């Protein structure tokens, strides 16, 4: 191939690489592979040409960027939690509000339904759980279910189940958000009917101070998982200026990062449920744990992302 034709065929690609830098590791790798192929060809057929020297310099620049990016990856874990996830989540606050709204409406419907139909709680929670709880109430330990299992095995089972529920809520967003909304609705109705069950027996405060020790993080995380699923569904339904496929890929990436960010919260909630909830704590201690958990959720997922985004504004 003549040198002029080789240059003509690749000029646009080289110019794009030079004028549109990126820090994406995958993109950098692809560019480096393409440039090294071009450089090898040029060194073989045009060893003393200007285009060979140009490609050598451009390839060296991409290589330095690639190495620099790899060094930055060592702090990737900290950067993800400190900056990337909060900034990403700030873009999804509207979906969070929608997710919380669906869940709250479902809770109210569950409460109202349980108050008007004596069989509703059994339909939602199951006869076995209701009968066991009624038996525990007779024994004077209405929430004795938390004392019935080994702590370590209970921690593993609860944590894995919660993570499974959250990721299922996220994945169901693939069905144009309707699957995620259904999951939020079901869990909300379950919570509403569950709390009414204890309210009806004069045990609402006792149940709140006991269950919400872990439930504050657990329920918040399910709502946030709903936000992740709605983000995916919204990207499919409303692509905006992107093509539907590009918008969908972007939504999947954003929603998945949010879902992954919930794993430590579910681990903490599982620990609290397995080791702390079963303990008989003074109301002030239980209330403090609940308030601290709620404050963390509000700060990290709402106020900190807003504050961080404002600092980035020019």
Automatic annotation (TrEMBL):
InterPro entries for this protein: SpoIIM-like (IPR002798)
Transmembrane segments: 95-114, 154-175, 211-237, 258-277, 283-303
Keyword Protein transport: no
Residue ranges that the Swiss-Prot or TrEMBL entry lists as coiled coil: none
Assigned keywords, A-Z: Membrane, Transmembrane, Transmembrane helix
Protein's UniProt name: Stage II sporulation protein M
Organism: Spirosoma telluris
């Amino acid at each position: 191939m003549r040198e002029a034709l080789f240059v003509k065929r690749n000029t646009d690609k080289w110019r794009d690489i030079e004028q549109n830098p990126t820090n994406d590791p995958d993109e950098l790798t692809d560019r480096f592979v393409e440039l090294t192929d071009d450089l090898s060809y040029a060194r073989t057929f045009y060893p003393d040409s200007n285009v060979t020297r140009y490609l050598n310099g451009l390839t060296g620049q991409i290589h330095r960027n690639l190495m620099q990016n790899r060094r930055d990856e060592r702090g990737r874990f900290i950067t993800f939690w400190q900056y990337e996830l909060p900034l990403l989540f700030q873009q999804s606050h509207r979906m969070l509000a929608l997710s919380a709204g669906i869940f709250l409406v479902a809770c109210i419907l569950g409460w109202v339904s349980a108050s008007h139909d004596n069989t509703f709680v059994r339909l939602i929670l199951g006869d076995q759980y209701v009968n066991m709880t009624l038996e525990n109430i007779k024994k004077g330990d209405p929430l004795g279910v938390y004392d019935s299992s080994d702590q370590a095995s209970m921690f593993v089972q609860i944590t894995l189940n919660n993570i499974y529920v959250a990721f299922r809520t996220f994945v169901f967003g693939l069905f144009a958000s309707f699957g995620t909304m259904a999951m939020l609705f079901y869990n909300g109705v379950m919570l509403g009917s569950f709390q009414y069950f204890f309210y009806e027996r004069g045990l609402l405060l006792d149940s709140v101070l006991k269950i919400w020790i872990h439930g504050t993080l657990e329920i918040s995380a399910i709502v946030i998982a709903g936000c992740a699923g709605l983000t995916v569904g919204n990207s499919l339904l409303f692509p905006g200026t992107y093509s539907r496929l590009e918008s969908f890929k972007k939504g999947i990436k954003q929603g998945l990062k949010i879902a992954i960010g919930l794993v430590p919260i579910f681990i903490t909630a599982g620990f609290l449920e397995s080791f702390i909830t079963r303990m008989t704590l003074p109301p002030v201690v239980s209330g403090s744990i609940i308030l601290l958990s709620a404050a963390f959720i509000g700060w990290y997922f709402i106020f900190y992302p807003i504050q961080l985004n404002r600092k980035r504004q020019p």
